[in-house]
């Protein structure tokens, strides 16, 4: 029997030919004036005082496991390079910024020298000004060109919200420059009548990698004048381009560079990142160019109080009688309610769309009991909303009309919301870089700020709130991406050939895997070689061969059955687990039940309802080894890395009571299986090792299963992944290894680099896994150590003590690592 742990949103894998010591970052104050009202009640409270109020009372105080105080820091000024246009400097000074921070001036100097540069400094350290000043100066120079269009610039953001926010900022800053700067957002929400004007006249176009991939590059003849004059490409929040998404974006940027060369331009890349390990290396892999890094943050920092918060145990019992903690969702809703009542402007970051909706609903209900108008000042913000809904929420947050917001990471990425006082983080966001990025949303006008990490009932979260040094004394992670992944590269070679026939000169641009893939694409009749070039052979659009976010195809539309109204969308890869028949779906504070899911037409029909429960999908998984790339001895056992094929099927769903998480029942589902070819790390143990660990046959499955769950939960501490990006299977006797085996695999076709990172940090990773299990206070296993919220086998069987003994014996034979964890 195999025990499985599937990543969320895993979708059918496509074979390549069918085409698919650095210090941690801290919140920084911007070098401009605050627009906070002095009468705002929150200005009278220090972050410590706000935390004291949240933790008042014996039961609340015990939930704070650690408090970290980061003192304020003075900034270091410099002067702008003398090559910056004086009109641009004057426009900046008119915004209240007399002098730049030293890192802003250095970045601008590199940009003017023609060096691609990455600014990797803390949140709110003024990264946007570092690249905007040289960009605006170039656009102003270009406006005076006697002939032609003049210089242009392209801005790429990972989200529409960030692009829209940046466009507002550019318009405000460039207003004194008149029509020399013509910024415009070009994305899926841009009306058709505006698009032609942008192509012809826009000289600072703000978009996202998705639109660049599907819209701009395939239509490059219509963008020829823009590309011919392209001087700068800004890549904002570039640390978010990791894993499969980052690998796709890396190839999109190579396609952009290729077309620019065709039109005679060679743009300089200006990248902005939260503090990251080796930012120049990551930026170089992303762009394919040498990149200079500017990482010495010279901006001032307001006081930050950062608290770790563990929800209490309840009297309820969960699966297999395990103790149940109060959910991070319920705890965060309480804290958001309290902060709103104090007049503290706050954002609660939540890991799922459903969680954001739930927290908003619960907070609104509790506020209505105290002050009904106050309930209208709390809302949810997440992906999947219609464009007009997103824009309205952004305006309300900017204006201060909203006091509290429960948001997914759609709001994390750089949306500048001045005046926030506190950030709640409902569950560790997967990486230290993301943790500091979210914490930095507060205090962005220079005032003190409060950040609270609320632990989920999860091995990693529990480990972190009791081991604060793992957060506050460790460097941020390296960015993991693999542009040479054949599942990523193949469709981009097709897209590139459709844009312009591929030549031998292009092979070096697309990387070392390109020469091997081109003959395969020919054999699959996707490309045809004529003379010295490869041509796209199909009538359909080559750019449609892949979804660069790895979401597995056309999004599923969520439609209200009675009215036909479109409520939103969900990624195709997540449809089996989130909008299956009987699933509970939340939208804008309203609850719906899914009546049917049509996978052929990509439509889920829903009806408004008020069930007293949420739903969680269950699945089964089988795994087979395709190829072993590396194998090293761990005592008598083996640690391996290679290619695997995973077959998964969602078979049922659980109904869990709201707030408590109590299981109310299980319902069977009939959904088709899906297969995935990916990369995995796996380890085996021998009979002698089992004897040494006192693992008898009757507990072997439970010991392996428990070790698998905990290791998946701990991997995000060592790789830039989320536990939902990875999956696992444990087998007492696997047919390919003929030994007891635990697999951990990437949840994306071709892999995302996470399993490879796990292989290279296996000693530290599995040692932390053993520590997390052994230090948990429960008797026989709970969600804080070995139970998983997405286990396809209902967390059965599990054996906590067996897992500790098994990992102890395994680690005795582990070789010394050559590479330290990220």
Automatic annotation (TrEMBL):
Residues 108-294 form the Helicase ATP-binding domain. CDD domains: DEXHc_Hrq1-like, SF2_C_Hrq. PANTHER family: ATP-DEPENDENT HELICASE HRQ1. InterPro entries: DEAD/DEAH_box_helicase_dom, Helicase_ATP-bd, Helicase_C-like, Helicase_put_actinobac, HRQ1_WHD, MZB, P-loop_NTPase. One of its GO terms (molecular function) is helicase activity. Residues 26-57 are annotated as: Disordered. PROSITE patterns: HELICASE_ATP_BIND_1, HELICASE_CTER. It comes from Streptomyces kebangsaanensis. It holds the Pfam family MZB. Keywords: ATP-binding, Helicase, Hydrolase, Nucleotide-binding. Residues 331-487 form the Helicase C-terminal domain. This is DEAD/DEAH box helicase.
